Each structure stands twice: as structure tokens, then as C-alpha cells.
């Protein structure tokens, strides 16, 4: 038996970049335009000797269009329901935003099993933002860089007991 990991978080934090790194194929669409991935994508992930299912979830858009916002919230909730564990990604370079706090509330309300990751933590530009992520009340933020492959060993050790 394996497990399912859902990558959740607001648009543009690097969810699809991490999904692609874990799946090793460019299944998810990565774009500089926030919110470009608006669906759930599933892939077979490998991390060291771990094999699991990963879901790249859409972010919650704080759009004017309520129907879009509602749809993305529902997609996120669906990803949470399908997953054994959620990797909640925030942007270490931006710090905690109101949208991140809405996500934290969704995850808490859903009683999700959450790993918090501050992405884009390569270099020193992410230090303050990564520390700020403690304020979400979801435990210690893991510092990762999906683009540069940093923090993957720590992610491995956190996921290992799930396998
Ligand atoms: P998503 O909307 O959460 O799926 O985010 P994407 O994966 O599409 O990434 C959004 C932007 O952040 C893209 O320009 C990525 O290249 C960039 N990005 C992703 N991961 C990192 C990282 O670890 N470091 C930096 N500096 N940029 C990243
Ligand atoms: Mg995406």
C-alpha cells in the first residue's frame, strides 16, 4: 500500500514545479501566470525509494469572480479529501498572505494531515518569509526549493513513515 500526497496552496507558490520534480515528467502545467493550473492532476511520484501518488491541486484564487473562487476552493477540498497527507506550500520570498491564511483555515477545518513547506527558500531571500510561516499555526515550516531540489531529503524523512 502506498499513500497519496496532495500539494495545496495559493497560485504561484510553486506547487506544479514540485509536482513535476516528484513525478519527473512535465504532466502539470507550470506558468508564471498565477492560477494557471486549475485542475487536479495526479501522477506517480518517486522520492528516493518512496513511491506514492501525488496530486497537484489548484490554488484558491482570490478572484472577483465568486464562481471561480468557489470552484477552486472545492477543488482544493477535493484534493484534501482524496489525500492521506497534504503538503501546504507557501512562498518563502513573499511571506504569509491573507490567501495563505484562508488555506490554513480550510486545512484545519478539514482536519487534514498537514506538512507545511516554505518554497523558494534557496538563498537568503526566503529566510524571513519561512520564519513567518510559523504564524500559520501548522507547525514547523520545512524550507524547500522545488526549482533547485533543496529540502527533498527532509521531505523524504517526513513522508517515510507514511509508506
Ligand atoms: P503554482 O501556481 O503554485 O503551481 O506555481 P508554479 O509551479 O507554476 O510556479 C510559479 C512560479 O514560481 C514559476 O515562475 C516557477 O518557476 C517559480 N518557482 C517554483 N519553485 C521555485 C523555487 O524553488 N524557487 C524560485 N525562486 N522560484 C520557484
Ligand atoms: Mg500550478
UniProtKB/TrEMBL annotation:
UniProt-recorded Gene Ontology molecular function terms: hydrolase activity
Similarity annotation: Belongs to the TRAFAC class TrmE-Era-EngA-EngB-Septin-like GTPase superfamily. EngA (Der) GTPase family.
Gene (UniProt): der
Segments forming domain EngA-type G: 3-163
Record: residues binding GTP 1: 9-16, 56-60, 119-122
This protein's UniProt keywords: GTP-binding, Hydrolase, Nucleotide-binding, Repeat, Ribosome biogenesis
Entry function: GTPase that plays an essential role in the late steps of ribosome biogenesis.
Subunit structure: Associates with the 50S ribosomal subunit.
Domain of life the protein comes from: Bacteria
Protein name (database record): GTPase Der
